[in-house]
Amino acid sequence: MGDFHQNGKVANLHHFSTGSSEQLERQLVEFSQTRKISLILPSLFSELEGPALANILDELSQAKFINQVIIGLDRADEEQYRYAKRYFSRLPQEHSVLWNDGPRLMAIDARLKELGIAPNEPGKGRNVWYCMGFALADQSSDVVALHDCDILTYKKDMLARLVYPVANPDFSYQFCKGYYPRIADGKLNGRVTRLLVSPLLIALRKLIGDNQYLEYLQAFRYPLAGEFAMRTYMLPDIRIPSDWGLEIGVLSEVHRNLSPKAVCQTEIADIYDHKHQPLSEEDATQGLSRMSTDIAKALYRKLAIDGVIFSGEFFRTLKATYLRVSLDMVETYYNDAIMNGLHTDRHEEERACELFAANIVEAGAAYLDNPMETPFIPNWSRVSAADRDLLRHFHEAVTLDNADYAPK
């Protein structure tokens, strides 16, 4: 059972376990008659062979409040795309599978490259961006939700609780972020949130002082959660990073575009587990090492936009401040785990903090060395301004792919 604490920055909608999920879903079915709800699923082909996605589809098949599912499929050849079409055909909702590596969508990508506005880096951010573009082109949704395809503990009521705040016409929320405890197999997970983001935000506030953006990020119980929902009208103006900074980047865009009163977070699960990334101490381009660097750079860029001036000395001081705060938090998390019969490895947690501290400086050096970097994918408003026909042609390409490779 959740608490009833409100942080005063963004509304916190709790899960008190006092109402039934069936009642919530019945209301959503009613809302969805006039406020259509689409779900975006960014997926690697490998996730179709994993343990999580089959259960996700079984649960979604019972989610009568979802009108449309948009699946972005990465790293798939023609045979794998045909397999994906059969795999997702169990969904009763209208659904489209974007073959991001197929010839038609690669031709769309080539047009964007000619205009200088194509996503430069493959990955989840690029996949989500194309799915958002398709939702805009399709013009059949009022609410768009997103979650990953590797959630091992997935239940459809997680999605119901995620979309409810923006689907309910009596609520004023335009954006909702999901949160949950990262507990599985008797231990605390969520290392990047616990050991990087939380202490880094504290350290940044110690050095910068009062800052609305940092206070806003600290208000989120789980800022790196991959689950969020928003009103579809927001999609044309969202600029997102193509790297691991996606979740921080989306929160930054919401902060830029919306009043805090239009933003909420909701508790969507008591337990949550998904695929875990390795720390990757030996290879800074992989795993949590790469993730920590990308997240730090995303924070620096946003703070610079707000007028914060950075230097090498600042980042060295930030490293020292962060390390002290994070090591203190390791002890706090250890105590919390012990009291709840859970396990944390204090040695491994401190190793993670040391790696993240080094990456905070590396991210700062990369930021200072390349101030001309354009980290965000251009928003869809700019795409439409550059090529008025592209969204229509994009929609036609996806429609043709889905028709030509439909299961027989």
TrEMBL record:
<protein>
    <submittedName>
        <fullName>Glycosyl transferase</fullName>
    </submittedName>
</protein>
<dbReference type="GO" id="GO:0016740">
    <property type="term" value="F:transferase activity"/>
</dbReference>
<dbReference type="InterPro" id="IPR029044">
    <property type="entry name" value="Nucleotide-diphossugar_trans"/>
</dbReference>
<keyword id="KW-0808">Transferase</keyword>
